[in-house]
């Protein structure tokens, strides 16, 4: 059931991106060009998305249990930390250079554009490098904690 719900949500999201024109890098770059020929259409798409998701969150928060999951998975962290800021800056740089973010990039794979393939491969490489780095960091912390535990005893 969760896989079907994920599929339907992805289909709705992808359709919305396509209908609104947000799969076109020129539209996104036009929105980011605030000192040039600014195109505000992305702002309207974002406002509509926020309005709809706000209604969805309000309804979900009223439920004691989700419809197709065992429990709610609400975010626990609300702080702004260094990894969040660094990740946001890197995301913004990539978005500004290519006019693509992950959703539209995956949708644009069907265009068979070499530029889109390079973007998606770079995105996957970046996620893989981060995953390896986080695994290495957590392993190093575990080893350090074990060494500290052994030296205390």
Summarize the structure.
The chain has 153 residues and is mostly helical. The chain has helices spanning 2-20, 25-32, 41-62, 82-98, 102-108, 114-152.
Write a concise keyword list for the protein shown above.
single chain, 6 helices, 153 residues
Radius of gyration: 20 Å
Number of helices: 6
Order of helices and strands: HHHHHH
**Number of separate domains:** 1
What oligomerization state is this entry in? single chain
Name the shape in a single word: globular
Helix content: over 70%
**Quick one: biggest sheet?**
none
N-to-C terminal Cα separation, in Å?
50 Å
> Which percent band covers the strand fraction?
under 5%
**Number of separate strands:** 0
Enumerate the spans where pLDDT stays under 50 for 5 or more consecutive residues: none
Secondary-structure-based class equals: mainly alpha
Mean pLDDT: 89
């Amino acid at each position: 059931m969760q896989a079907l719900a994920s599929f339907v949500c992805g289909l709705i999201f992808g359709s919305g991106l396509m209908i609104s024109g947000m799969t076109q890098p020129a539209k996104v770059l036009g929105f980011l060009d605030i000192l040039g020929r600014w195109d505000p259409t992305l702002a309207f798409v974002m406002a509509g998305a926020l309005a709809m998701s706000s209604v969805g969150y309000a309804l979900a928060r009223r439920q004691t249990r989700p419809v197709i999951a065992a429990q709610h998975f609400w975010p626990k962290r609300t702080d702004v930390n260094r990894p969040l800021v660094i990740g946001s800056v890197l995301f913004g740089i990539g978005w500004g250079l290519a006019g693509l973010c992950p959703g539209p990039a995956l949708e644009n794979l069907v265009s068979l554009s070499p530029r889109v393939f390079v973007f998606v491969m770079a995105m996957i490489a970046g996620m893989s490098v981060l995953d390896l780095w986080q695994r290495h960091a957590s392993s190093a912390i575990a080893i350090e904690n074990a060494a500290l535990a052994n030296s205390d005893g």
